[in-house]
Write a structure and sequence with these properties.
It is built from 17 helices and 16 strands. With 512 residues, the chain is of the alpha/beta class.
């Protein structure tokens, strides 16, 4: 027989376990809250709110700025609850309403441009933020609160004050190696939005394919695209689709290496001028644009201008990784250049090339991102992406350059998702020890990189999850709140919804 004391102890332990998972208090939401990334602060209150077919979304003010985010919320919510909410209508309504409020909020001062407050009360729900980004973030949290309930329509009374730890929360997709249809990219953007990832690093050109329609240099997509490329209209549509989800698309044109597809179209831009074919194999290729040819810079100036017209992002990624040019050293003008450099090898030539290219970026008011091969000579205003190790973070930040971190181990999502990998991904810390406070501030965030060599379209959602969830939490939530067991419990809760959106968890060994 169980004594009353024992029963009491069991209930106490159960209660504690539930509160660890941010228990849902006293509403008819049966399960604890499956919030990923974990909010900075959450207070449960009494009462609850249940949405029904009369609930409206009110925009305050009724600004176009808020409309697209409200529509995204409404569509996501409809998928999980089968309920269609009206947007707009009676703006003065105070009951049975979800208010999206764009207004200065003293509680959010100093918490950055993406902070928000979400309050769920007996009569209404209010998301308040000083920016549309903040309002959208709050809406995605509300969605997860609702999806935590049995009918996806109920929420406990609560107040969340939340903001991101990092401003760059990215995912790299690589349609250069395996082309990804527009619908697939939108599916990935939807998944990113749900977990507050806000940068799609879109690797649009490589040895195996050039994927951007070019009106200035049409052979790029006609020859370099090898049959698969995005039209400019499709790309602009993706930019708008992403923007409605608080995501910036930052395109990457990897230069001067990784360029067999470009050179298949315009072979005169390599030093040797040798004819090449769009590559059908993976691995590092030894074709590159020629640093000593003036026509290369004229070509790239026009091309970067065209690309900037499609993508409004402040940053455009200019690559710079794995340059193993076979024809640089023998080219006369390169040798002349080398005489003027301290560094008399291909690396010296690459630093020169990237600096020249940067003039086109600066002229357009854009900034370059470069891979960490250039951490010792980043062009003016450039951000460095650390991928081979965390080491380049110090090198780049100590010279005043911002950094984004995506080291191969463990944040390359094309690498196998071993059973222990999720923990490693979750425990990875993008800010290395040994930085000064000023250098720490220059770590802008990180990216999960899903390279395409082994990721055809049907593997994208398999490989993204669950690791993208872990990355989103590392990049959003306060460092001190990181707790793998707690995360695992919440991960189980968000699975169902994500699986309905096409994510796959618990993959087969052959799919790792
Ligand atoms: C890279 O993985 N080559 C940046």
């Amino acid at each position: 027989m169980m004594t009353e004391k024992r029963i009491g102890t069991i209930f106490l332990v159960l209660g504690l376990a539930l509160s660890l998972l941010q228990s849902s208090g006293n509403c008819d939401c049966k399960k604890p809250l499956g919030l990923i990334p974990r909010p900075a602060s959450l207070t449960l209150n009494s009462g609850s709110f249940r949405l029904n077919s009369d609930t409206a979304i009110a925009l305050a003010p009724a600004a176009a700025e808020l409309q697209s985010g409200a529509e995204v919320f409404r569509n996501f919510f409809r998928q999980s609850s089968q309920l269609e909410l009206a947007i707009g209508g009676d703006q003065g309504r105070t009951q049975n309403v979800v208010i999206f409020e764009l207004a200065p909020n003293p509680e959010l001062e100093k918490l950055g441009a993406e902070a928000y407050v979400l309050e769920i009360g007996q009569d209404r729900i209010k998301i308040s933020a000083p920016t549309r980004k903040g309002v959208f973030n709050g809406a995605m949290t509300l969605l997860q609160v609702l999806e935590s309930s049995e009918d996806s329509r109920s929420a406990p009374g609560l107040k969340i004050i939340d903001y991101p730890r990092f401003e760059h929360r990215g995912l790299l997709l690589d349609p250069a190696r395996h082309f990804l249809g527009v619908a697939m990219v939108k599916q990935a953007l939807d998944a990113m939005a749900r977990v507050k990832m806000n940068v799609l690093h879109f690797h649009l050109a490589d040895d195996q394919g050039w994927r951007i329609e070019s009106k200035v240099f049409p052979k790029l997509h006609e020859v370099g695209g090898a049959g698969s490329y995005y039209t400019q209209d499709q790309l602009k549509d993706l930019v708008a689709y992403a923007a409605a989800r608080n995501i910036t698309i930052e395109p990457e044109i990897d230069l001067p290496g990784h360029n067999t597809a470009l050179l298949a179209a315009y072979p005169e831009l390599s030093c040797s001028g040798e004819k090449v074919e769009v590559s059908k194999i993976i691995g590092i290729h030894r074709n590159a644009l020629c640093p000593g040819k003036e026509q290369v810079y004229d070509f790239l100036d026009k091309l970067v201008t065209e690309i900037a017209g499609i993508f409004p992002s402040t940053y455009i990624h200019a690559g710079g990784d794995e340059v193993m040019a076979k024809d640089w050293q023998d080219f006369g003008p390169n040798q002349e250049l080398l005489k003027t450099f301290a560094q008399k090898d291909n690396h010296g030539l690459q630093c020169y090339f990237q600096d020249r290219l940067n003039q086109s970026f600066l002229k357009l008011g854009r900034r370059m991102i470069v891979w960490d091969e250039l951490a010792d000579c980043p062009p003016e205003g450039a951000m460095v992406q650390a991928w081979r190790s965390i080491g380049p973070v110090k090198a780049a930040t100590s010279s005043g350059h911002p950094v984004v971190v995506s080291t191969v181990e463990p944040w390359y999502l094309d690498y196998p998702d071993w059973p222990w990998q999720l923990r490693r991904v979750y425990q990875f810390e993008p800010v290395p020890a040994g930085l000064t406070p000023a250098e720490e501030k220059l770590v802008m965030g990180g990216e999960g990189c899903l390279w395409g060599e082994r990721a055809p379209e049907e593997k994208i959602m398999v490989k993204l999850f669950p690791r993208l969830l872990a990355i989103s939490e590392v990049l959003w939530s306060p460092k001190e709140s990181r707790d793998f067991r707690n995360f695992k419990a919440r991960e189980k809760m968000v699975r169902k919804t994500l699986e309905e959106q096409g994510a796959r968890f618990g993959v087969l060994l052959s799919e790792l």
